[in-house]
């Protein structure tokens, strides 16, 4: 929202009074004087008036290397959730930017910024997700074409978007999806008569889970990593770094 609107709403000051506060250099945004009322702020922008903090909220962005056995949920009465692995003061505010099955391992993102998580999870954003899969049976070469054409899911009455399947061994492959449907990888292999035995997510868009983050550990994302998803070419870095 606009800074001047925030100020009028926050303290019920008149537009005239807010204009005076801005003109007199009494308003600070993230530690710097701001005189422009049309400047846009969000719920994580620090706003001060006459030295009094009107709004200060920390945005949190984390990546977790999820082990098997943890549910991608904030609460569950039966199973441990990924939240139990997060030792952070703002843990209770966090939500997941995309789920991973309980038995699956790999990259999970958590945040308290709903706008950011939408950029990752909304299907139209087409953020790529790369999984390493091992299967029960040999992966047939024709499966590459089947996945590229899309697999029909009767339950949702839809065909999956083109997925890139790269066979790396008889029963091992890498699969890149641009959407995140319920149990999608497992259901796609099931549709071609095979079965997924293990599933590991190695990347989401440009964020790569590499060897530096041990299983069960999390870390904060850098400012650069957070901003990747605001770029139109937010899938580019993964391809470049593979
Ligand atoms: N596809 C699956 O089958 N499971 C996941 O956790 C993610 C994608």
Short description:
Helices cover 22% and strands 26% of the residues. It is an alpha+beta fold and 242 residues long.
Provide structural commentary.
The chain has two domains: 3-55, RNA-binding S4 domain (Structural Genomics Hypothetical 15.5 Kd Protein In mrcA-pckA Intergenic Region, Chain A); 61-220, Pseudouridine synthase, CATH 3.30.2350.10. The protein contains seven helices and 15 strands. The chain has helices at residues 3-11, 15-23, 114-121, 142-149, 184-191, 223-227, 236-241; strands at 27-29, 32-33, 47-49, 52-55, 61-66, 95-96, 105-111, 129-135, 152-153, 158-159, 164-169, 172-177, 196-204, 207-208, 218-220. Strands 5, 6, 7, 8, 11, 12, 13, 14 and 15 form a nine-stranded mixed beta sheet that branches. It has a four-stranded antiparallel beta sheet with strand order 2-1-3-4, with no helix packed on it. Bound molecules: uracil. Uracil binds at residues 100-101, 104, 183-186, 199.
- Rg over CA atoms, rounded to whole Å, is 22 Å
Bound molecules: uracil
Q: What is the CATH homology-level superfamily of the largest domain?
A: Pseudouridine synthase
Shape: elongated
Low-confidence stretches: 236-242
The number of E-state strands comes to 15
CATH architecture of the largest domain: 2-Layer Sandwich
Task: Name the beta content range.
Answer: 25-35%
Largest sheet: 9 strands, mixed
Distance between the termini: 39 Å
State the name of the first-level CATH class of the largest domain.
Alpha Beta
Say what the CATH topology of the largest domain is: Pseudouridine synthase
């Amino acid at each position: 929202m606009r800074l001047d609107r925030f100020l009028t709403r926050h303290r019920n000051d008149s537009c005239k009074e807010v204009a005076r506060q801005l003109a007199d250099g009494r308003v600070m945004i993230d530690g710097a004087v701001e005189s422009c009322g049309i400047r846009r702020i969000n719920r994580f922008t620090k706003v001060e008036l006459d030295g009094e903090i009107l709004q200060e909220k920390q945005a949190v962005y984390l990546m977790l290397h999820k082990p098997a056995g943890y549910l991608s949920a904030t609460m569950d009465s039966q199973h441990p959730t990924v939240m139990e692995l997060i030792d952070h003061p703002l843990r209770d505010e966090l939500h997941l930017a995309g789920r991973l099955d309980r038995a699956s391992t790999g990259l999970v993102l958590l945040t308290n910024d709903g706008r950011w998580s939408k950029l990752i999870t909304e299907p139209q954003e087409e953020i790529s997700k790369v999984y390493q899969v091992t299967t029960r049976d040999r992966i047939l070469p024709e499966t590459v074409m089947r996945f590229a054409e899309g697999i029909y899911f009767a339950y949702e009455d839809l065909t999956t978007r083109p997925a890139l399947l790269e066979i790396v061994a008889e029963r091992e492959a890498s699969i890149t999806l641009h959407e995140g449907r319920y149990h999608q990888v497992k259901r796609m292999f099931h549709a071609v008569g095979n079965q997924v035995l293990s599933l590991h997510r190695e990347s989401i868009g440009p964020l790569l889970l590499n060897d530096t983050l041990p299983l069960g550990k999390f870390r904060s994302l850098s400012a650069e990593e957070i901003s990747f998803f605001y770029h139109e070419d937010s899938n580019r870095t993964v391809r470049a770094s593979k």
